[in-house]
Amino acid sequence: MFLAAFAIAVLLALRIWGGSEIMADIPAPYGAMLYHGLGYLLFAAVAIFLDQLVRMFYWRGYLARKMKRPTPALIEDIVTVCLIIIALSAALSYESGMNVAAIVTAGGATAIVLGIALQTVIQDVFSGLSINLDGSYAIGDWLTVYSEHFEHPKYGRVIGITWRSTYMRMEDGTQLMIPNHMATANAVTNHCCPAGPKRLSFEIPMDYRVPTQRAIAMLTGEACKAVRGNPLLARSPEPSAIIARFTDDATIYEVRFYADPEKVEPSIAQSIVSSAVHEVVLRTEVPNPVTQIEITPAPTRDMLHGTKEGRDALMRVPLFAQVLSEAQFDSLDESCHHAQFAAGAAFIRQGESATSMYILLEGAAAVTVTNARGEEQEVAVLAAGDFVGEMSLMTGAPRTATVTPLTPLRVLEITKEAMEGLLKTSPELLEHFSRVMAQRQFELRDIASQGGEIESAQVDLLSRMTAFFARVFRG
User: Alpha helices of 210-342 — where are they, by DSSP H?
Assistant: First the structure.
Protein backbone atom coordinates (compact mmCIF):
# COMPACT_ATOMS: atom_id res chain seq x y z
CA MET A 1 0.00 0.00 0.00
CA PHE A 2 2.86 2.39 0.82
CA LEU A 3 4.54 1.64 -2.52
CA ALA A 4 1.28 2.42 -4.34
CA ALA A 5 0.96 5.73 -2.45
CA PHE A 6 4.59 6.59 -3.29
CA ALA A 7 4.00 5.73 -6.96
CA ILE A 8 0.91 7.99 -7.04
CA ALA A 9 2.90 10.89 -5.60
CA VAL A 10 5.77 10.43 -8.10
CA LEU A 11 3.49 10.00 -11.13
CA LEU A 12 1.33 12.96 -10.09
CA ALA A 13 4.43 15.16 -9.75
CA LEU A 14 5.78 14.09 -13.14
CA ARG A 15 2.39 14.65 -14.78
CA ILE A 16 1.70 18.10 -13.27
CA TRP A 17 5.12 19.67 -13.00
CA GLY A 18 7.04 17.73 -15.65
CA GLY A 19 4.33 17.40 -18.27
CA SER A 20 5.19 20.56 -20.20
CA GLU A 21 8.91 19.72 -20.27
CA ILE A 22 8.15 16.20 -21.56
CA MET A 23 6.01 17.56 -24.39
CA ALA A 24 8.61 20.20 -25.25
CA ASP A 25 11.84 18.20 -24.97
CA ILE A 26 10.76 14.87 -26.49
CA PRO A 27 9.89 14.84 -30.20
CA ALA A 28 6.37 14.04 -31.28
CA PRO A 29 4.70 11.63 -31.12
CA TYR A 30 6.88 10.09 -28.37
CA GLY A 31 6.42 12.95 -25.97
CA ALA A 32 2.63 12.66 -26.14
CA MET A 33 2.82 8.89 -25.74
CA LEU A 34 4.97 9.27 -22.61
CA TYR A 35 2.68 11.96 -21.24
CA HIS A 36 -0.43 9.84 -21.66
CA GLY A 37 1.47 6.78 -20.45
CA LEU A 38 2.07 8.56 -17.15
CA GLY A 39 -1.68 9.13 -16.99
CA TYR A 40 -2.45 5.42 -17.49
CA LEU A 41 0.07 4.47 -14.80
CA LEU A 42 -1.44 7.07 -12.45
CA PHE A 43 -4.94 5.59 -12.84
CA ALA A 44 -3.54 2.07 -12.29
CA ALA A 45 -1.65 3.17 -9.15
CA VAL A 46 -4.82 4.77 -7.74
CA ALA A 47 -6.74 1.51 -8.37
CA ILE A 48 -4.04 -0.55 -6.66
CA PHE A 49 -3.95 1.87 -3.71
CA LEU A 50 -7.75 1.68 -3.27
CA ASP A 51 -7.62 -2.11 -3.51
CA GLN A 52 -4.98 -2.30 -0.78
CA LEU A 53 -7.07 -0.01 1.44
CA VAL A 54 -10.14 -2.20 0.99
CA ARG A 55 -8.14 -5.36 1.67
CA MET A 56 -6.53 -4.01 4.85
CA PHE A 57 -9.40 -2.18 6.52
CA TYR A 58 -12.45 -4.03 5.23
CA TRP A 59 -11.66 -7.60 4.09
CA ARG A 60 -8.94 -8.37 6.65
CA GLY A 61 -10.15 -5.91 9.28
CA TYR A 62 -13.85 -5.20 9.79
CA LEU A 63 -15.33 -8.16 7.87
CA ALA A 64 -12.84 -10.71 9.24
CA ARG A 65 -13.63 -9.61 12.83
CA LYS A 66 -17.36 -9.74 12.14
CA MET A 67 -17.29 -13.16 10.45
CA LYS A 68 -14.57 -14.48 12.82
CA ARG A 69 -12.86 -16.15 9.87
CA PRO A 70 -10.75 -15.03 6.85
CA THR A 71 -12.53 -13.48 3.87
CA PRO A 72 -12.47 -15.84 0.85
CA ALA A 73 -9.74 -14.90 -1.65
CA LEU A 74 -12.21 -15.12 -4.52
CA ILE A 75 -14.25 -12.16 -3.27
CA GLU A 76 -11.09 -10.07 -2.76
CA ASP A 77 -9.83 -10.91 -6.25
CA ILE A 78 -13.15 -10.04 -7.91
CA VAL A 79 -13.16 -6.61 -6.29
CA THR A 80 -9.53 -6.11 -7.35
CA VAL A 81 -10.36 -6.94 -10.99
CA CYS A 82 -13.38 -4.61 -10.93
CA LEU A 83 -11.30 -1.71 -9.59
CA ILE A 84 -8.63 -2.24 -12.27
CA ILE A 85 -11.24 -2.41 -15.05
CA ILE A 86 -12.86 0.80 -13.81
CA ALA A 87 -9.46 2.51 -13.63
CA LEU A 88 -8.49 1.43 -17.16
CA SER A 89 -11.87 2.50 -18.53
CA ALA A 90 -11.50 5.90 -16.92
CA ALA A 91 -7.95 6.22 -18.28
CA LEU A 92 -9.03 5.34 -21.81
CA SER A 93 -11.85 7.84 -21.64
CA TYR A 94 -9.81 10.66 -20.06
CA GLU A 95 -6.45 10.20 -21.81
CA SER A 96 -7.50 8.99 -25.25
CA GLY A 97 -11.09 10.15 -25.49
CA MET A 98 -12.22 6.64 -26.44
CA ASN A 99 -15.84 5.51 -26.17
CA VAL A 100 -15.66 2.63 -23.65
CA ALA A 101 -19.15 1.39 -24.62
CA ALA A 102 -18.04 0.98 -28.23
CA ILE A 103 -15.00 -1.03 -27.13
CA VAL A 104 -17.18 -3.34 -25.02
CA THR A 105 -19.56 -3.89 -27.97
CA ALA A 106 -16.73 -4.65 -30.36
CA GLY A 107 -15.31 -7.18 -27.93
CA GLY A 108 -18.61 -9.03 -27.62
CA ALA A 109 -17.87 -11.51 -30.37
CA THR A 110 -14.47 -12.28 -28.89
CA ALA A 111 -16.08 -12.80 -25.49
CA ILE A 112 -18.51 -15.35 -26.96
CA VAL A 113 -15.68 -17.36 -28.47
CA LEU A 114 -13.68 -17.28 -25.25
CA GLY A 115 -16.79 -18.21 -23.27
CA ILE A 116 -17.28 -21.39 -25.32
CA ALA A 117 -13.61 -22.33 -25.05
CA LEU A 118 -13.44 -21.63 -21.30
CA GLN A 119 -16.89 -22.94 -20.39
CA THR A 120 -15.70 -25.12 -17.49
CA VAL A 121 -13.48 -22.38 -16.10
CA ILE A 122 -16.29 -19.83 -16.23
CA GLN A 123 -18.64 -22.32 -14.60
CA ASP A 124 -16.16 -22.78 -11.76
CA VAL A 125 -15.76 -19.02 -11.33
CA PHE A 126 -19.48 -18.31 -11.14
CA SER A 127 -20.01 -21.32 -8.88
CA GLY A 128 -17.33 -19.99 -6.53
CA LEU A 129 -18.98 -16.58 -6.61
CA SER A 130 -22.37 -18.06 -5.73
CA ILE A 131 -20.84 -20.08 -2.87
CA ASN A 132 -19.48 -16.90 -1.32
CA LEU A 133 -22.60 -14.82 -1.93
CA ASP A 134 -25.13 -17.29 -0.52
CA GLY A 135 -22.83 -18.39 2.33
CA SER A 136 -23.42 -22.11 1.78
CA TYR A 137 -20.03 -22.76 3.35
CA ALA A 138 -16.93 -20.80 4.31
CA ILE A 139 -13.31 -21.32 5.28
CA GLY A 140 -13.12 -23.39 8.47
CA ASP A 141 -16.35 -25.35 7.91
CA TRP A 142 -16.46 -29.16 8.02
CA LEU A 143 -18.09 -30.57 4.87
CA THR A 144 -19.18 -33.91 3.48
CA VAL A 145 -19.25 -33.77 -0.35
CA TYR A 146 -21.22 -36.39 -2.29
CA SER A 147 -20.52 -37.04 -5.96
CA GLU A 148 -20.67 -39.83 -8.50
CA HIS A 149 -16.98 -39.15 -9.11
CA PHE A 150 -16.12 -40.29 -5.57
CA GLU A 151 -16.23 -43.90 -4.46
CA HIS A 152 -17.15 -42.67 -0.98
CA PRO A 153 -18.33 -39.25 0.27
CA LYS A 154 -15.44 -36.92 1.06
CA TYR A 155 -15.26 -35.45 4.57
CA GLY A 156 -12.89 -32.63 5.49
CA ARG A 157 -12.40 -29.01 6.54
CA VAL A 158 -12.45 -26.08 4.08
CA ILE A 159 -9.08 -24.31 4.06
CA GLY A 160 -9.50 -22.16 0.95
CA ILE A 161 -11.91 -21.02 -1.77
CA THR A 162 -10.29 -19.70 -4.98
CA TRP A 163 -11.55 -18.70 -8.43
CA ARG A 164 -11.83 -22.27 -9.60
CA SER A 165 -11.62 -24.63 -6.64
CA THR A 166 -12.50 -25.33 -3.03
CA TYR A 167 -9.64 -26.82 -0.99
CA MET A 168 -10.37 -29.23 1.85
CA ARG A 169 -7.99 -30.70 4.42
CA MET A 170 -8.93 -34.33 4.98
CA GLU A 171 -8.68 -36.06 8.35
CA ASP A 172 -5.53 -37.89 7.25
CA GLY A 173 -3.79 -34.57 6.58
CA THR A 174 -4.01 -34.68 2.78
CA GLN A 175 -5.51 -31.87 0.71
CA LEU A 176 -8.44 -32.37 -1.67
CA MET A 177 -9.15 -29.91 -4.50
CA ILE A 178 -12.80 -29.86 -5.60
CA PRO A 179 -13.85 -27.79 -8.64
CA ASN A 180 -16.41 -25.22 -7.53
CA HIS A 181 -19.02 -26.40 -10.04
CA MET A 182 -18.90 -29.88 -8.46
CA ALA A 183 -19.70 -28.38 -5.04
CA THR A 184 -22.75 -26.54 -6.40
CA ALA A 185 -23.98 -29.41 -8.61
CA ASN A 186 -23.87 -32.10 -5.89
CA ALA A 187 -25.18 -32.56 -2.36
CA VAL A 188 -22.96 -31.03 0.32
CA THR A 189 -23.49 -31.40 4.07
CA ASN A 190 -22.15 -28.48 6.13
CA HIS A 191 -21.51 -29.78 9.65
CA CYS A 192 -20.86 -26.27 10.99
CA CYS A 193 -24.12 -24.68 9.89
CA PRO A 194 -26.05 -23.79 11.92
CA ALA A 195 -23.50 -23.14 14.66
CA GLY A 196 -23.45 -25.36 17.73
CA PRO A 197 -22.92 -29.02 18.66
CA LYS A 198 -23.61 -31.68 16.03
CA ARG A 199 -24.52 -35.30 16.62
CA LEU A 200 -21.89 -38.00 16.24
CA SER A 201 -22.32 -41.72 16.81
CA PHE A 202 -20.58 -45.06 16.83
CA GLU A 203 -21.70 -48.66 17.18
CA ILE A 204 -20.74 -51.24 19.78
CA PRO A 205 -21.79 -54.92 19.71
CA MET A 206 -22.80 -56.86 22.83
CA ASP A 207 -23.85 -60.42 23.45
CA TYR A 208 -27.58 -60.63 22.76
CA ARG A 209 -28.22 -62.15 26.20
CA VAL A 210 -27.11 -58.98 28.00
CA PRO A 211 -30.32 -57.23 29.21
CA THR A 212 -30.95 -54.34 26.82
CA GLN A 213 -32.07 -51.79 29.41
CA ARG A 214 -29.00 -52.41 31.52
CA ALA A 215 -26.71 -52.17 28.48
CA ILE A 216 -28.36 -48.90 27.39
CA ALA A 217 -28.03 -47.43 30.90
CA MET A 218 -24.35 -48.40 31.10
CA LEU A 219 -23.47 -47.00 27.67
CA THR A 220 -25.46 -43.79 28.17
CA GLY A 221 -23.99 -43.21 31.60
CA GLU A 222 -20.39 -43.47 30.46
CA ALA A 223 -21.09 -41.24 27.43
CA CYS A 224 -22.63 -38.60 29.75
CA LYS A 225 -19.46 -38.60 31.84
CA ALA A 226 -17.12 -38.47 28.83
CA VAL A 227 -18.74 -35.52 27.03
CA ARG A 228 -18.56 -33.32 30.12
CA GLY A 229 -14.77 -33.44 30.24
CA ASN A 230 -12.14 -31.60 28.21
CA PRO A 231 -12.04 -30.92 25.33
CA LEU A 232 -15.70 -31.65 24.52
CA LEU A 233 -17.42 -29.77 27.39
CA ALA A 234 -20.82 -30.58 25.91
CA ARG A 235 -23.80 -30.72 28.29
CA SER A 236 -26.68 -30.39 25.87
CA PRO A 237 -28.19 -32.25 24.12
CA GLU A 238 -27.58 -35.26 26.36
CA PRO A 239 -25.99 -38.43 24.92
CA SER A 240 -28.16 -41.48 24.34
CA ALA A 241 -27.86 -45.12 23.37
CA ILE A 242 -30.29 -47.03 21.20
CA ILE A 243 -30.52 -50.49 19.66
CA ALA A 244 -29.35 -50.10 16.07
CA ARG A 245 -30.02 -53.65 14.89
CA PHE A 246 -29.79 -57.32 15.78
CA THR A 247 -27.58 -60.03 14.33
CA ASP A 248 -27.66 -63.78 14.95
CA ASP A 249 -25.17 -63.48 17.80
CA ALA A 250 -25.22 -59.86 18.97
CA THR A 251 -27.21 -56.77 19.69
CA ILE A 252 -25.67 -53.74 17.99
CA TYR A 253 -26.04 -50.56 20.05
CA GLU A 254 -25.55 -47.07 18.66
CA VAL A 255 -24.14 -44.50 21.09
CA ARG A 256 -25.12 -40.96 20.11
CA PHE A 257 -23.54 -37.80 21.49
CA TYR A 258 -22.99 -34.18 20.49
CA ALA A 259 -19.79 -32.18 19.93
CA ASP A 260 -19.05 -28.77 18.45
CA PRO A 261 -16.77 -29.13 15.39
CA GLU A 262 -15.53 -25.58 16.00
CA LYS A 263 -14.04 -26.68 19.36
CA VAL A 264 -12.84 -30.22 18.69
CA GLU A 265 -12.38 -32.24 15.53
CA PRO A 266 -15.17 -34.80 15.12
CA SER A 267 -12.77 -37.73 14.83
CA ILE A 268 -11.08 -36.76 18.11
CA ALA A 269 -14.45 -36.32 19.85
CA GLN A 270 -15.55 -39.73 18.61
CA SER A 271 -12.33 -41.32 19.82
CA ILE A 272 -12.70 -39.81 23.31
CA VAL A 273 -16.24 -41.06 23.85
CA SER A 274 -15.76 -44.47 22.23
CA SER A 275 -12.63 -45.06 24.33
CA ALA A 276 -14.53 -44.25 27.52
CA VAL A 277 -17.39 -46.58 26.56
CA HIS A 278 -14.93 -49.34 25.65
CA GLU A 279 -13.27 -48.98 29.06
CA VAL A 280 -16.55 -49.43 30.94
CA VAL A 281 -17.38 -52.49 28.84
CA LEU A 282 -14.02 -54.03 29.76
CA ARG A 283 -14.32 -52.98 33.41
CA THR A 284 -17.75 -54.54 33.84
CA GLU A 285 -16.63 -57.68 31.97
CA VAL A 286 -19.45 -57.64 29.43
CA PRO A 287 -18.89 -60.71 27.22
CA ASN A 288 -18.15 -60.32 23.55
CA PRO A 289 -20.67 -61.74 21.08
CA VAL A 290 -19.97 -65.38 20.33
CA THR A 291 -21.44 -67.77 17.81
CA GLN A 292 -23.46 -70.39 19.65
CA ILE A 293 -22.98 -74.02 18.68
CA GLU A 294 -24.79 -77.07 19.96
CA ILE A 295 -21.96 -78.33 22.14
CA THR A 296 -21.82 -74.98 24.03
CA PRO A 297 -24.81 -74.56 26.34
CA ALA A 298 -26.22 -71.06 26.66
CA PRO A 299 -25.28 -69.42 30.01
CA THR A 300 -28.17 -69.17 32.44
CA ARG A 301 -26.71 -66.60 34.81
CA ASP A 302 -26.91 -62.82 34.55
CA MET A 303 -24.49 -61.94 31.75
CA LEU A 304 -23.16 -58.76 33.40
CA HIS A 305 -22.14 -60.08 36.83
CA GLY A 306 -24.83 -62.37 38.15
CA THR A 307 -24.64 -63.17 41.86
CA LYS A 308 -21.09 -61.80 42.09
CA GLU A 309 -22.04 -58.29 40.92
CA GLY A 310 -22.43 -56.78 44.40
CA ARG A 311 -19.29 -58.41 45.75
CA ASP A 312 -17.23 -57.27 42.75
CA ALA A 313 -18.53 -53.71 43.22
CA LEU A 314 -17.53 -53.74 46.91
CA MET A 315 -14.04 -54.97 46.04
CA ARG A 316 -13.47 -51.93 43.77
CA VAL A 317 -14.12 -49.44 46.61
CA PRO A 318 -10.78 -48.43 48.22
CA LEU A 319 -12.41 -48.17 51.68
CA PHE A 320 -13.12 -51.92 51.61
CA ALA A 321 -10.54 -53.24 49.15
CA GLN A 322 -7.65 -52.41 51.47
CA VAL A 323 -9.30 -53.70 54.64
CA LEU A 324 -11.72 -56.62 54.24
CA SER A 325 -10.93 -60.29 53.84
CA GLU A 326 -12.66 -62.65 51.40
CA ALA A 327 -15.06 -63.88 54.08
CA GLN A 328 -15.85 -60.32 55.18
CA PHE A 329 -16.62 -59.32 51.60
CA ASP A 330 -19.09 -62.20 51.40
CA SER A 331 -20.69 -61.19 54.70
CA LEU A 332 -21.06 -57.52 53.72
CA ASP A 333 -22.40 -58.43 50.27
CA GLU A 334 -25.21 -60.46 51.87
CA SER A 335 -26.24 -57.42 53.97
CA CYS A 336 -26.38 -54.93 51.07
CA HIS A 337 -29.27 -54.48 48.71
CA HIS A 338 -29.81 -53.13 45.19
CA ALA A 339 -31.84 -50.01 44.43
CA GLN A 340 -33.01 -48.22 41.29
CA PHE A 341 -33.68 -44.52 40.73
CA ALA A 342 -35.35 -42.75 37.83
CA ALA A 343 -33.52 -40.02 35.86
CA GLY A 344 -33.93 -36.59 37.47
CA ALA A 345 -34.98 -37.89 40.92
CA ALA A 346 -32.28 -36.88 43.43
CA PHE A 347 -31.56 -39.69 45.91
CA ILE A 348 -28.98 -37.73 47.94
CA ARG A 349 -29.66 -34.13 48.99
CA GLN A 350 -27.17 -31.67 50.40
CA GLY A 351 -27.58 -31.10 54.15
CA GLU A 352 -29.74 -34.17 54.83
CA SER A 353 -28.85 -36.57 57.62
CA ALA A 354 -28.00 -40.03 56.31
CA THR A 355 -26.32 -43.27 57.28
CA SER A 356 -25.61 -45.05 54.01
CA MET A 357 -23.37 -45.00 50.95
CA TYR A 358 -23.98 -46.03 47.33
CA ILE A 359 -21.93 -47.73 44.64
CA LEU A 360 -23.10 -47.02 41.08
CA LEU A 361 -23.66 -50.20 39.06
CA GLU A 362 -25.26 -48.73 35.91
CA GLY A 363 -26.08 -45.25 34.64
CA ALA A 364 -24.71 -41.80 35.46
CA ALA A 365 -25.44 -39.18 38.12
CA ALA A 366 -24.51 -35.52 38.54
CA VAL A 367 -23.01 -34.24 41.79
CA THR A 368 -24.03 -30.65 42.55
CA VAL A 369 -23.24 -28.28 45.42
CA THR A 370 -25.30 -25.26 46.48
CA ASN A 371 -23.15 -22.33 47.66
CA ALA A 372 -23.96 -19.62 50.20
CA ARG A 373 -25.71 -17.52 47.53
CA GLY A 374 -28.07 -20.38 46.69
CA GLU A 375 -26.41 -21.08 43.34
CA GLU A 376 -26.19 -24.72 42.27
CA GLN A 377 -22.99 -25.86 40.59
CA GLU A 378 -22.15 -29.23 39.07
CA VAL A 379 -18.83 -30.49 40.46
CA ALA A 380 -18.64 -34.06 39.17
CA VAL A 381 -20.37 -36.78 37.18
CA LEU A 382 -20.47 -40.33 38.53
CA ALA A 383 -20.80 -43.47 36.41
CA ALA A 384 -20.51 -47.25 36.84
CA GLY A 385 -17.94 -48.15 39.51
CA ASP A 386 -17.98 -44.76 41.27
CA PHE A 387 -19.26 -44.42 44.83
CA VAL A 388 -20.61 -41.69 47.08
CA GLY A 389 -21.59 -41.16 50.72
CA GLU A 390 -18.83 -42.97 52.65
CA MET A 391 -18.57 -40.20 55.29
CA SER A 392 -22.30 -40.43 56.04
CA LEU A 393 -22.04 -44.22 56.29
CA MET A 394 -19.09 -44.21 58.68
CA THR A 395 -19.73 -41.06 60.79
CA GLY A 396 -23.37 -40.07 60.20
CA ALA A 397 -22.20 -36.70 58.76
CA PRO A 398 -24.82 -34.75 56.77
CA ARG A 399 -24.64 -35.00 52.99
CA THR A 400 -22.24 -32.44 51.51
CA ALA A 401 -23.73 -32.50 48.00
CA THR A 402 -26.81 -33.42 45.98
CA VAL A 403 -26.66 -36.43 43.64
CA THR A 404 -29.18 -36.58 40.79
CA PRO A 405 -29.39 -39.41 38.21
CA LEU A 406 -28.79 -38.28 34.62
CA THR A 407 -30.07 -41.64 33.36
CA PRO A 408 -32.01 -44.51 34.93
CA LEU A 409 -29.69 -45.53 37.75
CA ARG A 410 -29.02 -48.82 39.53
CA VAL A 411 -26.94 -48.79 42.71
CA LEU A 412 -25.74 -50.99 45.55
CA GLU A 413 -26.69 -49.45 48.91
CA ILE A 414 -24.57 -50.09 52.01
CA THR A 415 -26.42 -49.18 55.22
CA LYS A 416 -25.31 -48.55 58.79
CA GLU A 417 -26.98 -51.80 59.82
CA ALA A 418 -24.84 -53.73 57.34
CA MET A 419 -21.69 -52.16 58.78
CA GLU A 420 -22.83 -52.88 62.33
CA GLY A 421 -23.20 -56.56 61.49
CA LEU A 422 -19.62 -56.56 60.17
CA LEU A 423 -18.18 -54.67 63.15
CA LYS A 424 -19.86 -56.94 65.70
CA THR A 425 -17.71 -59.83 64.55
CA SER A 426 -14.61 -57.74 63.70
CA PRO A 427 -14.47 -54.53 65.82
CA GLU A 428 -10.82 -54.01 64.89
CA LEU A 429 -11.96 -53.01 61.38
CA LEU A 430 -13.01 -49.58 62.65
CA GLU A 431 -9.41 -48.48 63.10
CA HIS A 432 -8.50 -49.74 59.63
CA PHE A 433 -11.45 -47.83 58.12
CA SER A 434 -10.41 -44.61 59.86
CA ARG A 435 -6.86 -44.87 58.49
CA VAL A 436 -8.03 -45.40 54.89
CA MET A 437 -10.58 -42.58 55.10
CA ALA A 438 -8.04 -40.14 56.57
CA GLN A 439 -5.59 -40.90 53.77
CA ARG A 440 -8.36 -40.51 51.16
CA GLN A 441 -9.42 -37.14 52.58
CA PHE A 442 -5.94 -35.73 52.20
CA GLU A 443 -5.55 -37.14 48.68
CA LEU A 444 -8.83 -35.59 47.57
CA ARG A 445 -7.75 -32.20 48.88
CA ASP A 446 -4.36 -32.46 47.12
CA ILE A 447 -2.57 -31.72 50.41
CA ALA A 448 1.00 -32.91 50.72
CA SER A 449 0.62 -33.82 54.42
CA GLN A 450 3.18 -35.12 56.84
CA GLY A 451 2.57 -38.41 58.61
CA GLY A 452 1.65 -36.63 61.86
CA GLU A 453 -1.11 -34.62 60.19
CA ILE A 454 -2.67 -37.74 58.67
CA GLU A 455 -2.41 -39.49 62.05
CA SER A 456 -4.23 -36.57 63.69
CA ALA A 457 -7.02 -36.78 61.09
CA GLN A 458 -7.26 -40.54 61.65
CA VAL A 459 -7.66 -40.09 65.41
CA ASP A 460 -10.44 -37.55 64.84
CA LEU A 461 -12.24 -39.85 62.38
CA LEU A 462 -11.84 -42.86 64.66
CA SER A 463 -13.40 -40.90 67.54
CA ARG A 464 -16.38 -39.87 65.40
CA MET A 465 -16.84 -43.39 64.02
CA THR A 466 -16.66 -44.97 67.47
CA ALA A 467 -19.38 -42.61 68.71
CA PHE A 468 -21.52 -43.33 65.63
CA PHE A 469 -21.31 -47.12 66.10
CA ALA A 470 -21.43 -46.91 69.92
CA ARG A 471 -24.21 -49.48 70.29
CA VAL A 472 -22.06 -52.09 68.59
CA PHE A 473 -19.33 -51.76 71.17
CA ARG A 474 -21.78 -51.43 74.11
CA GLY A 475 -23.24 -54.79 73.03
Answer: 212-227, 266-283, 309-315, 318-321, 326-335
